[in-house]
């Protein structure tokens, strides 16, 4: 790829997740890191050195300098959620395309401000849900779309978890448990994935009702550390999705999708066990044998290879859209902001259900 075809990224902030995405940008064939900023230039210089960024990368001691740099095509924003709307709107007003960490915003009103700024300025918006860009996800989506005779049939039940063990240090000092930085806690950081996966399995049709369950755990500041919720769809067929997300449990990233004729299961849907391949179990037409002492079929283990890590595939797709807008006059894709907004709507509904004493919230 010629140098002038490459999308130049500016990174706003040196959070730990920025290390992963910086690597992804470096691995992507159509993207490069052009600039990085922190609130202090010393921190930005340290990040650049520790992550072996090229000497050509511009290093700044303020986010404004990246946003004002005419050589930056797009910004990646790994800042605390409370800062997303400020910097995404500012960057969009400078015609920078926006790749932002999830949760995209604290609520749908903030996200609408971001999306509207992107639409007004003709720039692309995408949140950092990396698993959506893995070829395994596309393979599973194909199986979901097949007819009843070859696919799993209408989806009736979805189960997903996103849990992680944490330390005392995390629970006291991490930005994800600070109300002034990431007030959604586990609901934003972890449930974003489970809600997104449930919507994905239902072709992004919003649920009819959303209900938080009463087993929520909060810290002393009121930030959610653990939460369980149920999503229900009435049409075109009845479906229930149960999600559980927690900073207090052993690591899990389970996703099970059960239809009338078959099911799909995977235990690493957010971050695959391996960078270069992923798998899932597909079961079709399973029944119990005589006397119910076994099954007539075993799950088929479906393996999907990928040449780049899923985060690099995300960057590659984002950069492809950006280059098409920049070089060919294309319009931004509406797919990615629509996915983010629907996810945010359900996050808001879970939060509202909690505030109402775990009563159902209609959408």
UniProtKB/TrEMBL annotation:
Signal peptide: none
Single GO term (MF): nucleotide binding
Gene3D superfamilies: Dihydrodipicolinate Reductase, domain 2, NAD(P)-binding Rossmann-like Domain
InterPro entries: Gfo/Idh/MocA-like_OxRdtase_N, GFO_IDH_MocA-like_dom, NAD(P)-bd_dom_sf
TM spans (from-to): none
Domain named Gfo/Idh/MocA-like oxidoreductase N-terminal: residues: 8-126
Residue ranges constituting the GFO/IDH/MocA-like oxidoreductase domain according to the UniProt record: 148-264
PANTHER family assigned: NAD(P)-BINDING ROSSMANN-FOLD SUPERFAMILY PROTEIN, PTHR46368
Sequence similarity: Belongs to the Gfo/Idh/MocA family.
Protein name: Uncharacterized protein
Origin species: Trifolium subterraneum (Subterranean clover)
Taxonomy of the source species: Eukaryota, Viridiplantae, Streptophyta, Embryophyta, Tracheophyta
């Amino acid at each position: 790829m010629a140098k002038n075809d490459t999308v130049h990224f500016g990174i706003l902030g040196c959070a730990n997740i920025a290390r992963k995405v910086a690597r992804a940008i470096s691995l992507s064939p159509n993207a490069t890191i052009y600039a990085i900023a922190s609130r202090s230039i010393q921190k930005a210089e340290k990040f650049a050195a520790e992550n072996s960024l090229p000497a050509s990368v511009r290093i700044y001691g303020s986010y404004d300098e990246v946003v004002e740099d005419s050589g930056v095509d797009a910004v990646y924003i790994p800042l605390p959620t409370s800062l997303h709307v400020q910097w995404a709107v500012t960057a969009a007003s400078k015609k920078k395309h926006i790749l932002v960490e999830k949760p995209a915003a604290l609520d749908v009103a903030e996200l609408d401000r971001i999306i509207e700024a992107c639409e007004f300025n003709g720039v692309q918006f995408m949140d950092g849900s990396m698993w959506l860009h893995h070829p395994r996800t596309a393979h599973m989506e194909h199986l979901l779309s097949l007819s009843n005779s070859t696919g799993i049939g209408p989806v009736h039940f979805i189960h997903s978890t996103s849990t992680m063990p944490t330390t005392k240090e995390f629970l006291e000092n991490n930005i994800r448990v600070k109300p002034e930085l990431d007030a959604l806690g586990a609901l934003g950081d972890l449930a974003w994935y489970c809600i997104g996966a449930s919507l994905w399995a239902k072709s992004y049709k919003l649920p009819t009702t959303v209900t938080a369950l009463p087993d929520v755990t909060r810290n002393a500041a009121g930030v959610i550390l653990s939460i369980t919720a149920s999503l229900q769809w009435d049409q075109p067929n009845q479906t229930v999705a149960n999600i559980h997300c927690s900073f207090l449990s052993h690591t899990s990233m389970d996703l099970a999708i059960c239809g009338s004729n078959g099911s799909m299961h995977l235990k690493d849907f957010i971050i695959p066990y391996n960078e270069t391949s992923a798998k899932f179990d597909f079961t079709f037409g399973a029944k119990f044998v005589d006397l119910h002492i076994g099954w007539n079929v075993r799950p088929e283990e479906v393996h999907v290879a990928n040449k780049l890590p899923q985060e690099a595939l995300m960057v590659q797709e984002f950069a492809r859209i950006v280059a098409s807008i920049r070089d060919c006059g294309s319009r931004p894709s509406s797919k990615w902001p629509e996915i983010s907004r629907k996810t945010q709507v359900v996050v808001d509904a879970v939060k509202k259900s909690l505030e109402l004493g775990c009563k159902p919230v209609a959408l």
